[in-house]
Design goal:
By secondary structure, the chain is of the alpha+beta class. It has a single domain (2-238), classed as 3-Layer(aba) Sandwich (NADH Oxidase), CATH 3.40.109. The chain is 35% helix and 18% strand. Strands 1, 2, 3, 4, 5, 6 and 9 form a seven-stranded antiparallel beta sheet that branches. A hairpin with a 2-residue loop joins strand 3 and strand 4. It is globular and about 50 Å long. The structure holds iron/sulfur cluster.
Length: 272
């Protein structure tokens, strides 16, 4: 049974059969055996001890130190940080069951977002994920008195987290034969607010990410150095940044695109 589930989950998107409610894989799965699609645990996988290599030059660039030169990052600090991070991820293969107006039902759970709904127009299978580097680096930063050192450790953590998420992305691409993927995270756009962390976490059994990540009452993830969201197959890569008008952001991955804002209907061309 486990082998069959793994084979079905690994099928490329184009080989899945659509049904009336928009869920492709369920039809395929149920044609094999009605019991398979209910074996939720087999659709979830943990990736532990994710290899993350931190390049001091990349971190310096991220901190714009290649331009300033007034302050320097000690290579020993990068090594210390590397030694304490614990990058891990969990993902779950989920199915889009219904596509409503500005809302999608995934594995029986409602997600309200016009942008997500539009992005999942031709998608039947998504990958809910949580990635973390653990709490140790955060604790180490908290224990340091030197503000600059705190800042460096925090920045190193951000770089490590992005690398861990990229590792998960590469794993998804190869395991599920995905040509292209994009992701969205609750809270990254006004259209998909932070409150949507609740339904996202409820996709995981017991509402826990199973890698030591939990939601606080204010819906922030604990440990802080964690990210969550949904990966979905795409032909053209989508970046939430394209719809985000924020002017100064070190994390920007793509320029703000007024045309796309209009296309998605999420606000004026000045911003959502
Ligand atoms: S520009 Fe920055 S704030 Fe806006 S979506 Fe991208 S990373 Fe997030």
């Amino acid at each position: 049974m486990r082998e069959i589930i793994q084979i079905v989950n690994a099928l490329p998107e184009r080989m899945l059969l659509p049904n009336a409610r928009g869920s492709k894989t369920r039809v395929f799965v149920s044609s094999l055996t009605p019991k398979i699609s209910s074996l939720k645990l087999l659709r979830m996988e943990k990736l532990e001890n994710i290899p993350v290599k931190l390049d001091i030059n990349v971190i310096k660039k991220k901190l714009h130190m290649d331009r300033t030169g007034d302050w320097d990052l000690d290579g020993a600090l990068v090594e210390t940080a590397t030694a304490v991070i614990k990058p891990s991820a969990v993902y779950k293969v989920c199915y889009v069951e219904e596509k409503l107006e500005d809302e999608v039902i995934i594995d029986g759970i409602s997600f309200k977002s016009r942008v997500l709904r539009k992005n999942l127009e031709a998608v039947g299978r998504i990958f809910a994920y949580v990635v973390t580097i653990g709490k140790q680096l955060e604790e180490m930063a908290g224990s340091r008195e030197d503000l600059l050192e705190k800042y460096f450790l925090d920045s190193i953590g951000n770089v490590a987290l992005v690398k861990a998420r990229k590792y998960l992305e590469d794993q998804l691409r190869s395991r599920f034969a995905l040509d292209g993927v994009s992701f969205m995270s609750p809270g990254s756009l006004g259209d998909w607010p932070i409150e949507e962390q609740r339904p996202l976490f409820s996709l995981f059994e017991g509402g826990k990410a199973h890698i030591g990540v939990r939601l606080s009452e204010s819906l922030l993830m604990i440990p802080k150095k964690s990210v969550s969201g949904i990966y979905f197959p795409t032909e053209v890569t989508f970046y939430s940044c394209q719809l985000c008008p924020r002017k100064r952001c070190d994390g920007r991955k793509a320029p703000f695109d007024k045309k796309l804002v209009k296309e998605y209907g999420v606000g004026t061309a000045e911003g959502p």
